[in-house]
Amino acid sequence: MSKLTLYNALIFDATGRAPFRGTVVVDGGTIADVGTVGEVKVPEDAKVIDLRGSFLMPGLIDAHMHLTGSRSGKIEEDLLTPIGVFFARAVKDLEALINAGFTTVVDAGSIVGLHLRDAVKEGTIAGPRVVAAGPVLSQTFGHGDIHYMPVEYVDYRTTRKLTPFVSLICDGTEECRKAARYAMREGADFIKVMASGGVLSQRDRPEYRQFTLDELSAIVDEARAAGRWVHAHAEGKTGIVNAARAGVKVIAHCDLIDEEAAQEVLKSGALCVPTFAIDEVLLREGQRLGVPEWGMKKIAELAEIHAENVRSAYRMGVKIATGTDFSGGVGRHGENALEIKMMVDKVGMSPAEALMSATRLAAEAAGLEGKAGVIAKGYLADVIAVDGNPLDDVSVLLDPKRVTIVIKEGQVIKSQSQP
Ligand SMILES: [Zn+2]
Fold first, then answer.
1. Please, which residues have CB within 8 angstroms of residue 81's CB and are 6 or more apart in sequence?
2. CATH 3.20.20.140: which residues of the chain?
3. How many whole angstroms from 249 Cα to the centroid of ligand 1?
4. Which of 293, 303, 398, 412 has its C-alpha lying 20 to 30 A from 149's C-alpha?
5. 300 Cα: distance to centroid of ligand 1 (angstroms)
6. C-alpha of residue 50 to centroid of ligand 1, in Å
7. Residues 360-369: pLDDT tens digits?
8. Does the domain at residues 3-59+373-415 carry the CATH identifier 2.30.40.10?
9. Three-state SS sequence of the chain
């Protein structure tokens, strides 16, 4: 295994330590040593990259997105496009993500992401590590039961046309257990459930409760029994509270989280992934992208209250991780650092807190706590160098050209000379 020394960088290690001038030694896929320039002994057989003081941090993580290869907001297009085309486009999306400094992404529902995960892992295509849910679990008339389409196009097990986003429709604890087991059989790293209504489901509303507490608990039980976890879509209060009580690890969106719901989330230790970036993109570009009018109406009602609520929950101590909910169609992959800026603008985080949210906390949401998201001995060597200091302004991360070096598991995937 090859050794690599990243010499003389300004290091933000995401442990909570103040940034320091230092050196990182990588051995194989992991970090072998890190410390100040004087502290770290540079191994003689290591290749040295002189960073001349540029900013070094853990690779970025998007803890809620969808690798679909979709290119519009029109769901009918999914039915008219061959599945292979979606895969080809998503390969390009993975390239854009790694170029932008993302070394891990959590695919919160898509068959495309589930399969491309393996292609990345075996080294056939370049991209971030993909942690994938595959098909999502939804109740009948739930957010994942795309109920404005004929029912025979929706369920993964019976669909007459495979589309990137497919569901396992299940009702009652027995069906929920079976669906969770089926998702894992298909290769799911974690189980994605729809615990409330949402914006992009025509006839439900974000505040509708979906799945009962019993159903959610059964799904969590099955996931845990197989060493996995549950990631829930929950916008309304009852959905959030039920998810927390059932032992869900990651609660996405959290639009209508209030003080009582935040207390439940705190008690359970769950992470919230608010996905503000998709709100922003929907408001800005939804109409042009063909997002249906009923979806545009709901997002306009929600966006502001969403930010207010999450800001209050954050002040109460709820753990917040970055996730965009980008799909490639609505929200272009490669622009995912927008969520880091949202953490500053909408939640009121300091730049250092926002970076923590995009690294260490997002790693926890990806099931990689203690393994990724931090620059420390024994962690996976996922690091990026940035031309500029995101602690002055996180916006530098929005420009992939400013991400000059990307290393994933000790492999240099991108390296461009410093200006
Ligand atoms: Zn999502």
1. none
2. 60-365
3. 15
4. 303
5. 18
6. 39
7. 999 999 999 9
8. yes
9. CCEEEEEEEEECCCCCCCCEEEEEEEECCEEEEEEECCCCCCCCCCEEEECCCCEEEECEEEEEECCCCCCCCCCHHHHHCCHHHHHHHHHHHHHHHHHCCEEEEEECCCHHHHHHHHHHHCCCCCCCEEEECCCEEECCCCCCCCCCCCHHHCECCCCCCCCCCCEEECCCHHHHHHHHHHHHHCCCCCEEEECECCCCCCCCCCCCECCCHHHHHHHHHHHHHCCCCEEEEECCHHHHHHHHHHCCCEEEECCCCCHHHHHHHHHHCCEEECCHHHHHHHHHHHHHHCCCHHHHHHHHHHHHHHHHHHHHHHHCCCEECCCCCCCCCCCCCCCCCHHHHHHHHCCCCCHHHHHHHHCHHHHHHCCCCCCCCCCCCCCECCEEEECCCCCCCHHHHHCHHHEEEEEECCEEEEECCCC
pLDDT at 143 over 90: no
Q: How far is the CA of 176 from the centre of ligand 1 (A)?
A: 20
The sign of the dihedral angle between the CA atoms of 380, 386, 389, 395 is: negative
Output the average pLDDT for the chain.
94
**Residue ranges of the chain that CATH labels 2.30.40.10:** 3-59+373-415
Distance 60 CA to ligand 1 centre (A): 18
Distance 252 CA to ligand 1 centre (A): 8
Per CATH, which fold does 60-365 belong to? TIM Barrel (3.20.20)
Residues annotated as catalytic are: 192, 325
